[in-house]
User: Fold this.
Amino acid sequence: MQQVTRDIPAAIAALQAHFGERASSGQSQREQHAHTTTWIAPELPDLVVFAESAADVQRTVQICAEHRCPVIPFGVGTSLEGQLNAPEGGISIDFSRMDQVLEINAEDLNVTVQPGITREALNIALRDTGLFFPIDPGANASIGGMTATRASGTNAVRYGTMRENVLALEIVNAQGQIVHTGTRAKKSSAGYDLTHLMVGSEGTLGLSTAITLRLQGIPERIVSGSATFPSIDAACKTVIDTIQLGLPVARIELLDPMQVQACNQYSQLSLPEAPLLLVEFHGSDATVDEQIAQFGELAADHGCNQIDTADSLEERNRLWQARHDAYWAARALKPGCTAHSTDACVPISRLAECISETREDLDANGLTAPILGHVGDGNFHVLLLLDESDTDEITRAKGVVERLAARAIGMQGTCTGEHGIGQGKQAYLRDELGEAVPMMAAIKRALDPDNILNPGKIFSL
Amino acid sequence: MQQVTRDIPAAIAALQAHFGERASSGQSQREQHAHTTTWIAPELPDLVVFAESAADVQRTVQICAEHRCPVIPFGVGTSLEGQLNAPEGGISIDFSRMDQVLEINAEDLNVTVQPGITREALNIALRDTGLFFPIDPGANASIGGMTATRASGTNAVRYGTMRENVLALEIVNAQGQIVHTGTRAKKSSAGYDLTHLMVGSEGTLGLSTAITLRLQGIPERIVSGSATFPSIDAACKTVIDTIQLGLPVARIELLDPMQVQACNQYSQLSLPEAPLLLVEFHGSDATVDEQIAQFGELAADHGCNQIDTADSLEERNRLWQARHDAYWAARALKPGCTAHSTDACVPISRLAECISETREDLDANGLTAPILGHVGDGNFHVLLLLDESDTDEITRAKGVVERLAARAIGMQGTCTGEHGIGQGKQAYLRDELGEAVPMMAAIKRALDPDNILNPGKIFSL
Assistant:
């Protein structure tokens, strides 16, 4: 792409004139909006604008478009591949004040929200409807951020990812127009699927200002369980059997012994420190009992002697809160460390092999790194706990990440199941999809010719 | 878009030299490849190429790209909105000889096929795996065509549409490159979702040469049923309650009395000639019984006195074959007629109202037109049975279609749930998605600057 002549100071002046105190150039705000949580170095925006409406977002983009100034969307700041960085400077739009539920259509099982609402706040708002929104990445992320990275989480094995659960979007495009990408119909064959093009585009093609999501009925009965296995391989093989049998498990999460130990310490649990599967079943009384019994048989085939089940809301919440706190629990294993969470996803038949080779690679490189993940989808995470001052350790860790991406791609999988490409995985995207990447870049250039929307993410034009 | 200078004769000469007898310019082949089945007038291609491999498709597109000659993909010719027409002339690529299953990955619940295989042939090939491919538009369409129009059918209420069931594609793009849009991983956050951009793009952005599909386990037990209601409204309200309760019905189809009468005559059935729901439940013994009982209670609330169930494969097949033959059954109601099947899809809460207003409009215009459809998704069809020589009748029918599109859009639905835009619904697409349409056109221009891939479909550039 030819070099764009940006006039960032002019954009800042116009935005400050328009937004007054809602445009901040303070150092701490700028730092907070470029906090990467990983080994990716922060690159600060020049200004943070706090949007309160779609009109605010539109005005911001219009001003930025006029001056060809970069615009970077910010939800709550939990992305993991440098998606929030401002490598060319520019404006961070903070969506946290756009946190309203716009319309609950309980009778149609959908809801329209502003992008700044978090997944937990959304579920609180839905409390009286008998419905819930199932997608739950570990962090209490914003729905806008989850849309931008095509996020998923523990429930995806049953309910799908953001890809399956975003029905339609209102966006502001690079020209500053408000555009609706779909309707509230459950299905449609009307033209190109811009909704799905936007989901996972990491803010590079448009900024969401309203998001219509599918909802699910809260199951009549929910039972969680934990099952301990003699080896990671035995646990993975149980997962493979469960999926292949078509058992409609709602959650099936692997924690390796190091992660179990971390969770026990951090969340005051007393789980056996062995390879562990956390599962959950949703359904009616009859179906849940049937599912647990079937799962128990599969687990027993792989050496699991006992499944501890939790029926009550309190017990279940304690278990899943511990799972969602796994990242913080892992960090506590190595005080003062930097954590780098990487992810990969492979066809389920290759899961055991992929995890086992990755564990060998970690051990051979002397790295402290629990493995855990959404194994029902063939997706897992490695939490690399690193001493930032130990450059050799960082180098070894980067080697592990690179080989993991290559391993997953070699197994017909992907270098990222749910974290996205951002700045961190651009080389692996090219390894994975080859000639598809220039096609993506052509779309980017067509929709955002001045490269103002989150430049430098997914690919460097 | 500026006018492209096409040299179709040069492309024809090069293709004939390369493909020999596999390139046909015979009148009957050209006519067969532009047969529209509706009121849309046929527009014949200049040449039909019978592709036998991805390399053949690639060579065809490369020759066409060189001469800026249109290329139109052809599966089995069952599209309904003029998708196969050649308004600017050019080449029809016939995919019927690319009908192989390339790779069954039963352990990962997916399969990779060539685009010319039909859905019925695919399910025959899967027979020994315990798996099936659920998407079933009425016609025995090709998987490539179903991908291109984002097709669905009776099972979509439970298993989703082609949108949810295509995992990855191999395509030939407008530059004649072979590109892979995804992997076999169940989920991914790796870059733009080109797979979903291609699904439903009606051959205007790329031609599929291999399609990876999700598969489902064949349920332990399947029970079908038919339920008669005192009114269309009562049947629709039962559907709404079923969906809102979250009952995992696998199929729930409405047939209005005129369609029931047609099916009885055509398929030698003796269904009561009243508003009818055909349903199907998939699951284990226990869950299916539970679901039928729950559905029975909901239906009884709306005046249904009895549900006739069919357990045996033979009985079930007879019922669903009749449903799939509905189009032919309807045509037989008015011998010599032209049938025009139109579709719309609305949020489920608006279904009863949308169908009832549409029926009033049909009656007010004196048109013979059964209504039926995939009502669990809020999607229904109107089969307009028309005398082609009666121009006034055609005009009245076009008015009904136009008002149906406006009505669906006004209810926050879509002008097409599964048939696509093609040539027939371009004005309604603009009504439905406004400023999104120029964004789609920008993508088209970026990926196919000479407008060679199925020009004149979805929008006229």
Summary: The mean pLDDT of chain A is 96.
